[in-house]
Write a structure and sequence with these properties.
- The complex is a heterodimer of chains A (490) and B (481).
- Chain A has a domain at 3-257 and 442-485: Amidase signature (AS) domain (Amidase signature (AS) enzymes).
- Chain A is 40% helix and 12% strand.
- Chain A has helices spanning 3-6, 11-19, 25-43, 51-66, 109-116, 159-166, 183-189, 223-233, 251-256, 277-292, 303-324, 343-354, 357-369, 376-396, 422-427, 433-438, 467-479, and strands at 46-48, 78-82, 120-125, 172-177, 192-195, 215-220, 263-267, 296-300, 402-406, 442-449, 455-462.
- Chain A has an 11-stranded mixed sheet.
- In chain A, helix 8 (223-233) runs antiparallel to helix 17.
- Chain A starts with a helix and ends in an 11-residue tail after the last helix.
- Chain B has 481 residues and is α+β, with helices and mostly antiparallel strands.
- Chain B has 3 domains: 3-294, no CATH class; 303-414, no CATH class; 422-480, Arc Repressor Mutant, subunit A (Orthogonal Bundle).
- Chain B has 15 helices and 17 strands.
- Chain B has helices at 53-65, 167-183, 224-243, 289-296, 303-314, 318-324, 328-341, 344-362, 373-384, 390-403, 407-414, 422-435, 437-444, 451-461, 468-480, and strands at residues 3-14, 69-70, 73-74, 77-80, 90-93, 100-101, 104-108, 120-132, 136-140, 143-147, 154-160, 196-206, 216-221, 251-256, 261-267, 277-278, 285-286.
- In chain B, the strands form 4 sheets. In chain B, strands 1, 2, 6, 7, 8, 11, 12, 13, 14 and 15 form a 10-stranded mixed sheet that branches. A 3-stranded antiparallel sheet of chain B has the order 5-4-16, with no helix packed on it.
- In chain B, helix 2 (167-183) runs antiparallel to helix 3 and helix 6 (318-324) crosses helix 8 (344-362).
- Chain B is elongated and about 95 Å long.
- The chains are: A alpha/beta (490), B alpha+beta (481).
């Protein structure tokens, strides 16, 4: 089979070929290596990849299969990793100078689960430094380009993960979503990206940005592929006290049951000023599709979420980040200033040299939020707002099964367009961050293109731990449209 | 104007658990540097804490022993500050909702004499919370090396009310607290190993005053004696300042136990802003009634309660209880032997004199001792029933201690049973009189003590087996006759 056929095949189809022994994991891995070598000098999705290691694991997978010991659908499938999730023996840089030379000695829980399932960790994917950003422009290493238009950003912070999947460099990838960092790049790059319910996927081994908001999420080219990857990484983990102790459904099997039509809500506040007309149009068309298939569409209101989510988010996220990032001090690992006199000087210099400007901005902001005399006014208040935001959603969910919304106000913007305006950049997360505050699952699926040929995403927001239903709703749209047949030309 | 000191203590006690507070890495002491670590201890990127339930159990146990209120929910906060011994540069601790509040520690002040019971007082506690210990810095040759073996060890902080009024009371508080921890199996409280550490807040005020004076925090009081000396020094220093009309400055001072002096570490203006906030990595833990009841069922008797019971139940003198009390194992040993023998006071004396002497001489712990309570009870019975003499019993005890052999078996094997055979005794006494003419003459001359030389002779001849009471009677009769 020609490489060009393989590289854009959905993971589920690749799994079927592997199972039927019409394809070997080595062939597939070689095709991805070749593709990555061919296009990544332009896309620059990867911070690094280890061809020899990937091929060795592919050979091991093929050997298992030959011996009749294949471990399931993922066995032999390469999965790209955002460079924020630990894989033993591989770099864990968070796209930061601070960790440029750090190699993880341990596996994240998701990594261990994927290895147990026979999947092949494939490369380290670029991101905004420490997952702080919406364009991957905050990477300390290089700019990842949007495969649909190399002059545009892939979104962020999981920009490398979304770009790699879109460009055919990886069939599956893991990103992390703290305020939209899986969904927004998925929408910018025309792939499917899911942020699971907080607590569904273990955070052990995910380098923390904001602990109460972070979730690892899968990116892929189809809803089914996302379901397959989610099934492999979800579930209670004794190493993560915030992981939820509940059995994991078989998401792929649930997809084959067709329980619709559903009652779907449309938050009226999400379609006001600031939403690009073409993006709004594509999302409206998707809403009409659901109406046309017998779903009841209801307008709902999210008054607190729509007004205060950004403010609450930037207080809570930065406060937690200021504490989470305190460990990068040059003492035990990571960047250590060459010439330091004493501990305090070592901290100042190592952190000044190791962190980029956006990370520093958020550490300073978060430190201030937690300071004596400001805590009550900012952090405590933001936590109360957070409860009200969750109540907004739970109230809406008394009437509807899920919500339909845009992912981002615009399609992918130009590299540098918002780089000097942090506030404009923060507002690009306006439709996504309230889910993180409320702990809800959300998925971004392609729902069309702008006239300029840029992908547009539809966000579907689900009830807590109702990923199976969320995926089914997303699948219904996907099956009614051929967007996934389109691929960027590189 | 006379001044009085007001003292509050903050005591850190390492909780004895197999693993650390928030990870599976082993807790321990004296291991090669940085071997008791794992990714969580070293705060590698991406790791998460998971609470050690055993540590929480033990702090709840302490709370119940001290009569504290146990919080219905155990909540965790982050205390943020940078220091190289702190791997995360924040410490997981409890800020506004400590697991225990209130309660008290009963202390005993020095009595009028060493062998007399002192006054007891109850020192109220403000709170007890659980947190994690930090690592250790070693400075050498202009370099600082960090050992993270201690980092992450469960650590409880016990805060007293400012209710102590002398260095002696502070000393008594720590002594009592330490014993309670040891009784509870919560900590060994070895201050040399840093398992118990103390900071003291000291202020002075005019006698009878209500308002607290400006406090000074004394740090690094790393033995119970240094606590006493450091506080005494600080009281003297403050009193001198205020008596001279000076004003106290709120500050933290470092006490040097070697030189007996203190120096300022930092003033109030330089105090940290710890930016406490709830740790988002840890869920609050509900402590329900069943959980507390389970721990309550295993609470040990408190040391002073035990002492009062020993007075009442066994009529033990204060001096004996003082010897027994510091060692819960010794108390248990005593009670078992006392019950088996029915002679608590005799058992108490044997333990206080012979057992402790032998243990000390052999430098072994009670747990490693071969003498069991049943052996001691047996020995006491042998003496009480006149089977062996008190003097021989001492030798039998040493034999028991060395071999672990039962006293009855030693007595039988060595033929130590006291003899009451009239013929044998008569013979020995006759020999004694014949061999000691001068003593006989002295005794007849009115020197009562002179009979002892003849008794000694009989004991020697009989290898200690002669019944002393019978020997006395026979000697007197023979000399008189």
């Amino acid at each position: 089979m020609a490489d060009s056929e393989l590289i854009f095949k959905p993971a589920a189809e690749l799994a079927a070929l592997l199972a039927a022994k019409q394809l070997s994991s080595v062939e597939l891995t070689q095709a991805l290596i070749a593709r990555t070598r061919a296009v990544d000098d332009r896309v620059r999705a990867f911070n690094s990849f280890d061809e020899a290691d990937a091929l060795a694991q592919a050979r091991a997978s093929d050997a298992r299969r030959a011996a009749g010991q294949a471990r399931g659908a993922l066995d032999g499938l390469p999965v790209g990793f955002k460079d924020v999730i630990a894989v033993a023996g591989q770099p864990l840089t968070c796209s930061s100078r601070m960790l440029a030379n750090f190699v993880s000695p341990y596996d994240a829980t998701v990594t261990r689960k994927l290895k147990d399932a026979g999947a092949i960790p494939w490369g380290r994917l670029n991101m905004d430094e420490f997952a702080m950003g919406s364009s991957t422009e905050n990477s300390a290493f290089h700019q990842t380009a949007n495969p649909w238009d190399l002059e545009r950003v892939p979104g962020g912070s999981s920009g490398g993960a979304a770009a790699a999947v879109a460009a055919g460099e990886a069939p599956l990838a893991l990103g992390s979503d703290t305020g939209g960092s899986v969904r927004q790049p998925a929408s910018f790059c025309g792939v499917v990206g899911l942020k699971p319910t907080y607590g569904l996927v273990s955070r052990y081994g995910l380098v923390a940005f904001a602990s109460s908001l972070d979730q690892i999420g899968p990116l892929a080219r189809t809803v089914e592929d996302v379901a397959m990857l989610l099934g492999a990484i979800a579930g209670h983990d004794p190493l993560d006290s915030t992981s939820y102790p509940a059995p994991v459904p078989d998401y792929c099997a649930e997809l084959r049951v067709r329980p619709g039509p559903w009652k779907l809500g449309v938050p009226k506040e999400y379609f006001g000023a600031g939403l690009d007309a073409e993006v709004g149009g594509a999302v409206q068309a998707a809403i009409e599709f659901y109406r046309g298939t017998g779903c009841e569409i209801r307008e709902v209101s999210l008054p607190v979420a729509s007004s205060y989510a950004v403010a609450a988010y930037y207080i809570i996220a930065t406060a937690e980040a200021s504490s989470n990032l305190a460990r990068y001090d040059g003492v035990r690992y990571g960047h250590r200033a060459a010439e330091a006199t004493g501990a305090v000087d070592l901290y100042f210099k190592s952190r000044a040299e190791g962190f980029g400007p956006e990370v520093k901005r958020r550490i300073i902001l978060g430190t201030h939020m937690l300071s004596s005399g400001y805590y009550d006014a900012y952090y405590l208040r933001a936590q109360k707002v957070r409860t009200l935001i969750r109540n907004d959603f739970l109230r809406a969910f008394q009437e509807v099964d899920a919500l339909l919304a845009p992912v981002a106000p615009t399609a992918a913007f130009k590299i540098g367009e918002k780089a000097s305006d942090p506030l404009a950049m923060y507002l690009s997360d306006i439709y996504t961050i309230s889910l993180n505050l409320a702990g809800l699952p959300g998925i971004s699926i392609p729902c069309g293109f702008t006239r300029g040929g840029l992908p547009v995403g539809l966000q579907i927001i689900g009830q807590p731990f109702q990923e199976a239903r969320l995926l089914a709703i997303a699948r219904a749209y996907e099956q009614g449209h051929g967007w996934r047949g389109r691929h960027p030309t590189l | 104007m006379p001044y009085e000191p007001v003292i509050g203590l903050e005591v850190h006690v390492q909780v004895k658990t197999r693993s650390k507070m928030f990870t599976r890495a082993a807790a321990g002491y004296g291991e090669p540097p940085n071997t008791l670590t794992d990714p969580v201890v070293l705060a590698l990127p991406g790791v998460l804490p998971v609470m050690n339930k055993a540590a929480l159990d033990r702090v709840i146990k302490v709370g119940l022993m001290l009569g504290c209120e146990i919080a219905p929910v155990c909540k965790w906060d982050r205390k943020n500050y940078f220091y190289p011994d702190s791997p995360k540069n924040y410490q997981i601790s409890q800020y506004d909702q400590p697991i225990c509040t209130g309660g008290a520690v009963e202390i005993e002040l020095p009595g009028p004499a060493r062998n007399l019971l002192g006054e007891h007082r109850r020192i109220p506690l403000t709170r007890i919370h659980l947190e994690e210990d930090v690592g250790k810095l070693n400075h050498a040759g202009g370099e600082s090396l960090v050992d993270y073996n201690r980092a992450g060890t469960p650590l409880m902080e016990i805060v007293s009310e400012p209710a102590l009024h002398s260095a002696e009371e502070a000393f008594a508080f720590l002594t009592a607290l330490r014993l309670i921890m040891i009784y509870g199996g919560v900590s060994d409280c070895d201050m040399e190993k840093g398992q118990m550490r103390c900071d003291a807040n000291v202020s002075v005020r005019p006698v009878g005053g209500q308002k607290l004076g400006t406090k000074v925090e004394l740090k690094n009081l790393n033995s119970i004696s240094f606590v006493r000396a450091g506080i005494a020094h600080e009281i003297k220093r403050q009193t001198a300042i205020v008596e001279a009309g000076g004003a106290m400055v709120q500050e933290t001072r470092d006490y040097d136990g070697q030189t007996g002096t203190s120096q300022s570490l930092r003033s109030k203006e330089m105090a940290h802003d710890y930016r406490y906030f709830p740790d988002p990595d840890l869920m609050p833990v509900k402590v329900d009634a069943a959980w507390k009841a389970g721990i309550r069922a295993e609470l040990p008797e408190l040391p002073f309660d035990k002492q009062r019971r020993f007075f009442a139940e066994y009529q033990l003198p204060y001096t004996i209880t003082s010897v027994l009390l510091p060692d819960r194992g010794l108390c248990d040993f005593f009670e078992e032997a006392a019950k088996l023998s029915g002679r608590p006071q005799a058992v108490g004396n044997w333990i206080a004199n012979d057992l402790l002497r032998e243990l000390g001489g052999a430098r072994i712990a009670l747990a490693a001792c071969q003498v069991r309570p049943a052996h001691l009870a047996g020995l006491v019975k042998l003496v009480e029933t006149g089977v062996i003499s008190g003097n021989l019993a001492k030798e039998v005890f040493v034999g028991m201690f060395q071999s672990g052999e039962a006293p009855e078996s030693i007595v039988a094997r060595q033929g130590l049973r006291q003899t009451t055979d009239a013929g044998e005794l008569d013979q020995w006494c006759a020999e004694a009189i014949a061999a000691n003419p001068k003593s006989v003459a002295d005794f007849k001359g009115g020197k009562e003590n002179a009979i002892n030389a003849m008794k000694g002779f009989v004991m020697k001849q009989s290898k200690g087996k002669a019944n002393p009471k019978l020997v006395d009677e026979i000697l007197r009769r023979k000399i008189a006759g």
